[in-house]
């Protein structure tokens, strides 16, 4: 009798324990990710060609923020920590947040894990705008923002606007049609970029550096202008996590649920484009982050956008901040190269580890 009673009681206990574990997993991952971001921030500010003791690094930051403790470090240390490294690390982490959230948004809208933030021609538009600006003999800087940054932002925004307008003008309402239009426009812009590079002369090296991505020229004016834009777009995306979940069921099903599909799709596209344009204007073209970070998070916690989006933002910041540190230590390697070299093996490892529990 005892054996017969224990069997139906123990099974639900196991299932309840498993459900509770799954519910706790996103919270644990969030705390771990925030701790990782704090560690990356501290190491990114302390390490470099000139090493700064961690105690002095923390002291400089506390002194600038709260006025204490008393200054016990050289003036050069404060300049390196607060004026050079801190804005660079914050820029890298902000760009990581933007690219990861934009990638998760496009993957959800397209229901395709291979989509990335540049899927609608954003990269080609930004690269063309920046390349044209680099060939202009007169370079202007206003409030710390150069002509290259502005041109990249405008080029990325216009590229997506043209893609969406062409898709709607041709009667193509679905995201698949928008995607195909984006490929066509992106190819045309890439051809124009190749022509500009061919005619660029002495500006060719500068264009290549931009295409590979770099945070070497990051400054406080860039942070103060670019960070609010990324924050605005990211907030819009995060507040529409339920909408993105409905989109995962298909546009027709989402419409039957009472969702204004065209309006919500436009809002999500606009927000994702806004953060992507701001990111490429601040750093150049950095691949892999928006493609892989959301996908890795999805492998661990599933496709629910209410957990996927915030975790992607956290780990996107940590990943790109760490990649910039790795690029800086050997002597200013392109960040895009580091994200691919570091991220690809880890991505393949997780794919192999979770292939039994996740179907692509």
Structure description:
This protein is an all-alpha fold and 360 residues long. It has a single domain, classed as ABC transporter involved in vitamin B12 uptake, BtuC (Orthogonal Bundle). It is 77% helix and 1% strand. A hairpin with a 2-residue loop joins strand 1 and strand 2. Helix 3 crosses helix 13, helix 4 packs antiparallel against helix 5 and helix 8 runs antiparallel to helix 11. The radius of gyration is 23 Å and the shape is globular. It starts with a helix and ends in a 6-residue tail after the last helix.
Q: What's the number of helices?
A: 14
Cα shape: globular
Task: Give the CATH topology.
Answer: ABC transporter involved in vitamin B12 uptake, BtuC
Mean pLDDT: 82
The count of strands amounts to 2
Low-pLDDT residue spans: 1-14
Q: What is the count of structural domains?
A: 1
Kindly report the spatial arrangement of strands forming the biggest sheet. Answer: 1-2
Helix/strand-derived category reads mainly alpha
| Major sheet description | 2 strands, antiparallel
Using only CA atoms, what is the Rg? 23 Å
Q: What is the CATH homologous superfamily assignment? A: ABC transporter involved in vitamin B12 uptake, BtuC
The CATH architecture comes to: Orthogonal Bundle
Q: How much helix, percentage-wise, in residues?
A: over 70%
Question: Which class in CATH terms?
Answer: Mainly Alpha
Portion in beta strands? under 5%
Q: Tell me the series of helices and strands, N- to C-terminal.
A: HHHHEEHHHHHHHHHH
Cα-to-Cα separation, first versus last residue:
46 Å
Name the quaternary structure: single chain
């Amino acid at each position: 009798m005892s054996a017969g009673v224990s069997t139906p009681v123990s099974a639900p206990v196991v299932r309840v324990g498993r459900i509770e574990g799954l519910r706790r997993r996103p919270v644990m991952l969030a705390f771990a990710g925030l701790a990782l971001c704090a560690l990356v921030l501290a190491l990114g500010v302390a390490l470099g060609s000139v090493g700064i003791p961690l105690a002095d690094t923390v002291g400089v930051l506390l002194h600038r923020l709260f006025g204490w403790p008393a200054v016990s470090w050289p003036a050069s240390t404060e300049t390196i920590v607060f004026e050079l490294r801190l804005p660079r690390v914050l820029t890298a982490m902000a760009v990581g947040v933007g690219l990861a959230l934009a990638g998760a948004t496009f993957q959800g809208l397209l229901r395709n894990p291979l989509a990335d933030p540049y899927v609608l021609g954003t990269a080609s538009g930004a690269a063309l705008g920046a390349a044209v600006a680099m060939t202009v003999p007169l370079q202007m800087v206003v409030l710390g923002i150069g002509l290259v940054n502005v041109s990249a932002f405008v080029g990325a925004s216009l590229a997506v606007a043209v893609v969406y307008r062409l898709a709607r003008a041709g009667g193509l309402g679905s995201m698949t049609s928008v995607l195909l239009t984006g490929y066509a426009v992106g190819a045309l812009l890439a051809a124009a970029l190749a022509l500009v590079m061919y005619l660029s002369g002495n500006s060719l090296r500068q264009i290549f550096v931009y295409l590979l991505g770099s945070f070497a020229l990051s400054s406080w004016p860039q942070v103060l202008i670019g960070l609010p834009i990324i924050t605005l777009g990211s907030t819009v995306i995060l507040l529409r996590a339920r909408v993105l979940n409905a989109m995962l069921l298909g546009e027709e099903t989402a419409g039957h649920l009472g969702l204004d599909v065209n309006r919500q799709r436009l809002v999500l596209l606009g927000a994702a484009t806004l953060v992507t344009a701001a990111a490429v204007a601040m750093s150049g073209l950095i691949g892999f982050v928006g493609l892989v970070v959301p996908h890795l998070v999805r492998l661990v916690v599933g496709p629910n956008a209410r957990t996927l989006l915030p975790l992607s933002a956290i780990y996107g910041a940590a990943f790109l901040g760490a990649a910039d540190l790795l690029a800086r230590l050997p002597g200013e390697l392109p960040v895009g190269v580091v994200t691919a070299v570091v991220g690809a093996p880890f991505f393949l490892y997780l794919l192999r580890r979770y292939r039994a529990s996740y179907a692509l």
